[in-house]
Amino acid sequence: MNNAIKEGKGPISEAWKLFKESNLGKTGLVILLFFALMAILSFIPPLIDPMYHPLKGVDPSISVSTPPSLRHWLGTDFMGRDILSQLLAGARVAFVVGISSALMSIILGTLLGMIAGYWGRIVDTLIMRAADIIMVLPTLLVILVLAALFKGLSIWSIVIIIAIFRWPGVSRVIRAQTLSLKNRPFVDAARAVGAGHMRILFRHIMPNVVPLAFLYMTFRVTSAIVIEAALAFLGFGDPTTVSWGMMLQWVWKTGHMFKAPYWLLPPGICISLITLSFYLIGRAMEQVLDPRLRRDWEG
Amino acid sequence: MRIWRFLLRRLFQVGISFFIILSLLFFLLRLSPGDPYSKYIDSDMTTQEVEIIKSQMGLDRPLWAQYLIYLKNFIKGDMGISFYYGKPVGEVIRGKVFNTILLFTTSVIFSALVGIFLGKIAAWKRGSLLDSFLTFSSLVTHTLFLPWLGLLLIWLLGYKLELFPLSSMYTPEIWLDPEISFLRKLLDVLHHMFLPFLTLFLLHFGSYLLLMRNSMIGVLKEDYILTAKAKGLEDKDIINKHAVPNASLPVITSVGLSLAFSINGGALTETVFSWPGLGRELVVAVSQNDYPLAQAAFLLIAIVVLLANLLVDLLYAYLDPRIRYE
User: Fold this and answer.
1) H or E element in which residue A84 lies
2) What 3-state class would DSSP assign to B193?
3) Which of B135, B147, B309 lies nearest to residue A233, judging by beta carbons?
């Protein structure tokens, strides 16, 4: 489906050349690098002084929310914790949640999509019906109900549940791709020389569908980050992690939203910008993989 | 005739999907840690109330019998008694459905229409400054974090500029006063609705705009557009009569596909603005461990989503005759 990659001496450098043409894609990448830097820097503040620990560190001389100062560049929250260190730690949480959940959901989606497309019949029907049902369910609300049933979810349970609810989109695309691949000559040839189902699926079909699955990864990252943030905002996040959604919940629940713009603005800007950056990168990758879209987005 | 068969088949599918959701919820409730008794029985209840609930739900019977009782109760519309309100769940929820549908449908329909309209312009003026502006602002608004946008709007337009009320759906003083005309009361609701509506609108119109723009660009390359131009039609007619009907089809599909996303957003918006709808009721019920209420709110939302999906499918079938004959 992609000439540039097929011809290319180095498919990755070819793709990169195409990606670079997209200004929006580059913008996304720059924003993303900034957040990656934040995530790396998040390890530093607690080393400087224990009071900069994002969750447990409390400035002994402060017991209310204070505006930015030299000691606390972005101010402190309602109990004297440093907002900047929380913001940095939030970047780390966003990456962990977004990437691990997205990886899991595309692995699940790829496997189920390949199985549905390859086996067909009843297996196909079952998997695709399940996908249809999951697709119409509002993920956030389902996780809310689960959070109530299981009395508080840890960050990893949240990640896994998000992944379980985000595979159908991927599996539909992979299934369609598998359907078109399974009758190609190279698969027939493999079957003729005696390759089993597993070998055909994993050695012959999978390498052809995986790039497509990765295209869907960036969009899964954004949705995982947003769902975790929303869940934390509503008060059902993991209380042992500091995510941006959690910070917003603190501002909101402690009634600081009218008094402390220095506290309300940063986490929201971060969630919105990281979503935007993954979204822009996803768009640019779509253009790289699908020539029909090229130069259509930016005019 | 075919459209009826199509409708029947889709209704049947909706029924099956809902049955599966209903059953999954039952088993999840029973399988989750902690004994099932504790979930339906609040510590504040009297022993008499506890007995009623036990016999109603058959909590002393085997699992399959409980399942049948659960289905029977659901069909009778008897979803138990809310712990928090102390009233039958159905009564609590009935009033909220309309509020959710009011806020949700107006914002989804309005943002889709504006998205289609602006997307059309962006595609036609492709490459212009206006196009870049529209595309860029859709990308940015579409990726904003919804609750945060809501809080910002409350802070800016509600608190600082005092243009709109900060929360809720109506002013009790106005609604309880029998002297005040109905029109005035309606205006009061619209006044309260503006900020939550604006939040949902800002978040949604961008994705429709981008989709419409892209689909329009594809359609404008088609031969029949060239034919229309060759016939000497005016630009306005080419766009509105030939390009837009075809280009809006993918947008309508995406309204259907993004319904789940919009419902999530709806629940968050309702919570931030204390809008008395189903989504907020679910969030509150969950945080108060009000299981019967949470369960009923969730099931009702599932019904709303499934039916809304069906509606979008029907609209699609109506607009695109090819679907009906598949």
Assistant:
1) helix A83-119
2) helix
3) B147
Question: A230 and B146: CB-CB below 8 Å?
Answer: yes
How far is Cα A67 from Cα A82, in angstroms, rounded to an integer?
A: 11
Q: Judge contact between B73 and B25, C-beta under 8 A.
A: no
Give the pLDDT confidence of A195-253 residue by residue, as tens digits: 888 888 888 888 888 877 877 788 889 889 999 999 999 988 888 888 999 999 998 88
Beta bridge partners of B88: B81
> Hey, what are A237's tokens?
């996040």
Q: Tell me if A140 and B146 make a contact (CB, 8 A cut-off).
A: no
Euclidean distance between CA atoms A86 and B259, whole angstroms: 33
Give the CA dihedral A213, A216, A221, A227, nearest 10 degrees.
Answer: -120
**Considering only residues 104 to 143 of chain A, which have any Cβ-Cβ distance to chain B shorter than 8 Å?**
132-133, 135-142
Q: Does the distance separating the beta carbons of A138 and B267 come in below 8 Å? A: yes
List the beta bridge partners of residue A82. A76
Cα-Cα-Cα-Cα torsion B170, B171, B173, B179, nearest 10 degrees, comes to -50
* Beta partners for residue B81, in sequence order: B88
Read off the tokens for B124: 């036609």
Helices A261-289 and A244-253: crossing angle in degrees, nearest 10, is: 150
DSSP assignment string, A106-152: HHHHHHHHHHHHHH-HHHHHHHHHHHHHHHHS-HHHHHHHHHHHTTS
Of B140, B283, B295, the CB nearest to A234: B283
Least Cα distance to A16 among A3, A4, A32, A6 occurs for: A4
pLDDT at A11: 63
Angstrom distance (rounded) from CA B313 to CA B132: 32
Looking at the predicted complex, does its ipTM rise above 0.95?
A: no
What sign does the dihedral A52-A55-A56-A58 (CA atoms) show? positive
- Closest by CA to B279, choosing from B151, B155, B104, is B104
Q: Do A136 and B289 touch (CB under 8 A)?
A: no
Calculate the CA dihedral of residues A97, A99, A101, A104 and round it to 10 degrees.
Answer: -150
Q: CA of A112: how far to CAs of A102, A117, A124, A162, in Å?
A: 15, 8, 9, 16
Contact residues on chain B for A138, CB-CB shorter than 8 A: 260-261, 263-264, 267, 301, 305
Amino acid present at A212: L
For B83, how many CA atoms within 13 A lie in the half-sphere containing its CB?
20
Residue A1: pLDDT band (50, 70, 90) is: very low
Closest CA to B207 of B139, B107, B109, B146: B139
For B29, the token pair is: 């409730």
Place of tokens 């713009």: A261
Chain A, 228 to 247: residues with Cβ < 8 Å from chain B are 229-230, 233-236
Task: Report the distance separating Cα B192 and Cα B169, nearest Å.
Answer: 5
Could you list the beta-strand ranges (E) of B220-300: none
Cβ atoms within 10 Å, residue B15:
11
DSSP conformational letter for B78? -
What residues have CB less than 8 Å from B268, skipping those under 6 apart? A140, A230, A233, A234, B146, B147, B150, B279
Distance CA A132, CA A128 (A): 6
0.90 surpassed by pTM: no
Contact B289 A148 (CB under 8 A): yes
